[in-house]
C-alpha cells in the first residue's frame, strides 16, 4: 500500500476541516444576506456580505468610504412617486442603507436627536469603531451606557464655562507665546503654517490643564512639527487599526524609535498620570484635571488606575486640542481671505480696549458669528460615530430597526447635505446675526 494509516487519518482530518469551513462559510453567506435582522434594508449585497468592501475603500482607496456611502444612498434611493398622474420613478438620496454586515447608515439629519439621545435613553458605542483609538479606558471609547456616563460626569465640570473662565490666565499666557511666534515669523518674513501654530497653542493649553505642565510646543519649533506629524499619523492609521486592532497591540510592544510618536504620546501620558497619582509632583500646580480626578469622589478606586486615566489623557490632549486647532486655522484662513470681514472683526475687538476677557468677547456679535461659522466649516468630526440602542427597537420613517443594531450618521457632512440647507439657514444663519464665509 502506498498510504499509511497516519496519512489516511490526516487526509480525513483535512476533509473534515474543509467541509466544516465550507459549511460555516455557506451559513455565513445565507445568514448575512437573508436571515440577519438588517437583511431587509437596502444596500449592495457585497457590503452586506463582508467588511472587506469597506476595507477596500478605507485602506486601499485611502479614505474614500465616505463618498462610497454617498453613492450607496444615491443608487439605492429609487422611490415610487406619482407625478402628474403618471406612475414613475424618481431618484433621490435614499434615507437608509446597509453599509456593512452589521451597520446601517441614515441620511436624515432630523434623526440626529433620536439616534444620539441624551441620558434618558440608553445608547452604547460600537466596539469595532471605538477600539480604533487605542485608549479603551477613556470616556470617549467607553462602550457601555452606564460606565460612559460615570466617566463622562467625572470630567464634565472641567469643560464648563465656569472652568474655562477660570483658565483665562493660563490661556492668555499661551496666547502671549503664540504672539511671539507670529512676530518672529513676521520679522523674518517667513510664512507660518496655521495648523502647526494653533496645534502648538492648544497642545500647551490642554497639557498644562491636564497635567500641570505644558509640553512646550510654543517655544520649541521642532516639537511643534513633531506634534503635528503625530496627529497626522493618528488620523492616517485610525481607519487601518479599526479593521485590524491587533496593530495597536503590536505598536505598544515596540520601542518609541520603531513605534513612532503616537505610542510615545501614550507612554508619556502614563508617566505624567503616574506622577500625579503617586503624589510625585510636589511643588507643581494642583488644580489640574488629573489632580481633581485623583481626589474626586465621583469615581471609585478601580476607575483611578494609571492606565485608565492615561487613556483619558490621550484623548483629551490629542483629540481635544486638535479640534480647537482645526477650528482656529479655518477661522483665520477665511478671515485672511476676506479682508473686509477681517477688518470688521478687528474693529469690533478694538472697542474692548485693553480689558479683553472671554465674557466681553462672547458678546461681540460679528466675532461670535465668525467663530460659529468656523465651527461649521472645520468639520472637526470627519467620520461617523456609530450608536447602538440595546434595549429598544428604533423607528425611522417606515422602517423598524431592531434593538442592538449599529446605526450611524456622518458628522463630517452633517452641515453640508443639500437637503439640510433650508433648515440650517433658519437655525444657524439668521441674516441679522451670522455671516457666511464660503
TrEMBL record:
The keyword RNA-binding does not apply. Its cofactor is heme. It comes from the Eukaryota. The chain crosses the membrane at residues 12-35. SUPFAM superfamilies: Cytochrome P450. It holds the Pfam family p450. CDD domains: CYP58-like. Keywords: Iron, Membrane, Metal-binding, Monooxygenase, Oxidoreductase, Transmembrane, Transmembrane helix, Virulence. GO terms for molecular function: heme binding; iron ion binding; monooxygenase activity; oxidoreductase activity, acting on paired donors, with incorporation or reduction of molecular oxygen. Belongs to the cytochrome P450 family. This is Similar to cytochrome P450. It comes from Botryotinia fuckeliana (strain T4) (Noble rot fungus). The lineage of its organism: Eukaryota, Fungi, Dikarya, Ascomycota, Pezizomycotina.
Amino acid at each position: 500500500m502506498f498510504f499509511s494509516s497516519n496519512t489516511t487519518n490526516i487526509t480525513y482530518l483535512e476533509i473534515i476541516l474543509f467541509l466544516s469551513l465550507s459549511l460555516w462559510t455557506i451559513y455565513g453567506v445565507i445568514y448575512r444576506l437573508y436571515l440577519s435582522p438588517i437583511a431587509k434594508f437596502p444596500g449592495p449585497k457585497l457590503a452586506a456580505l463582508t467588511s472587506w468592501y469597506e476595507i477596500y475603500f478605507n485602506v486601499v482607496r485611502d479614505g474614500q468610504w465616505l463618498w462610497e456611502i454617498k453613492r450607496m444612498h444615491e443608487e439605492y434611493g429609487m422611490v415610487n412617486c406619482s407625478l402628474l398622474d403618471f406612475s414613475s420613478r424618481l431618484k433621490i438620496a435614499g434615507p437608509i442603507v446597509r453599509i456593512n454586515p452589521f451597520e446601517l447608515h441614515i441620511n436624515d439629519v432630523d434623526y440626529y436627536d433620536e439616534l444620539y439621545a441624551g441620558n434618558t435613553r440608553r445608547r452604547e458605542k460600537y466596539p469595532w469603531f471605538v477600539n480604533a483609538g487605542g485608549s479603551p479606558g477613556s470616556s470617549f471609547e467607553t462602550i457601555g451606557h452606564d460606565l460612559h456616563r460615570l466617566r463622562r460626569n467625572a470630567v464634565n465640570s472641567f469643560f464648563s464655562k465656569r472652568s474655562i473662565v477660570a483658565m483665562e490666565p493660563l490661556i492668555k499666557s499661551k496666547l502671549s507665546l503664540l504672539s511671539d511666534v507670529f512676530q518672529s515669523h513676521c520679522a523674518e518674513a517667513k510664512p507660518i503654517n496655521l495648523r502647526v501654530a494653533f496645534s502648538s497653542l492648544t497642545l500647551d493649553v490642554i497639557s498644562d490643564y491636564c497635567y500641570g505642565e505644558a509640553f512646550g510646543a510654543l517655544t520649541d519649533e521642532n516639537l511643534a512639527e513633531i506634534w503635528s506629524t503625530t496627529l497626522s499619523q493618528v488620523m492616517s492609521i485610525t481607519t487601518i487599526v479599526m479593521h485590524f486592532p491587533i496593530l495597536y497591540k503590536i505598536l505598544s510592544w515596540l520601542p518609541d524609535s520603531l513605534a513612532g510618536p503616537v505610542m510615545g504620546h501614550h507612554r508619556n501620558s502614563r508617566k505624567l498620570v503616574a506622577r500625579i497619582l503617586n503624589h510625585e509632583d510636589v511643588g507643581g500646580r494642583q488644580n489640574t484635571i488629573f489632580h481633581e480626578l485623583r481626589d474626586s469622589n465621583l469615581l471609585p478606586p478601580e476607575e483611578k488606575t494609571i492606565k485608565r486615566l492615561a487613556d483619558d489623557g490621550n484623548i483629551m490632549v490629542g483629540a481635544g486640542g486638535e479640534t480647537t486647532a482645526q477650528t482656529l486655522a479655518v477661522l483665520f484662513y477665511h478671515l485672511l481671505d476676506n479682508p473686509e470681514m477681517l477688518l470688521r472683526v478687528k474693529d469690533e475687538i478694538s472697542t474692548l480696549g485693553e480689558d479683553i476677557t472671554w465674557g466681553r468677547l462672547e458678546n461681540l456679535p460679528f466675532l461670535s458669528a465668525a467663530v460659529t461659522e468656523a465651527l461649521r466649516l472645520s468639520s472637526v468630526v470627519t467620520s461617523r460615530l456609530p450608536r447602538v440602542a440595546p434595549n429598544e427597537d428604533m423607528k425611522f420613517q417606515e422602517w423598524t430597526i431592531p434593538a442592538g443594531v449599529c446605526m450611524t450618521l456622518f458628522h463630517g457632512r452633517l452641515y453640508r447635505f443639500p437637503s439640510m440647507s433650508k433648515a440650517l439657514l433658519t437655525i444657524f444663519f439668521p441674516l441679522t446675526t451670522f455671516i457666511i464665509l464660503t
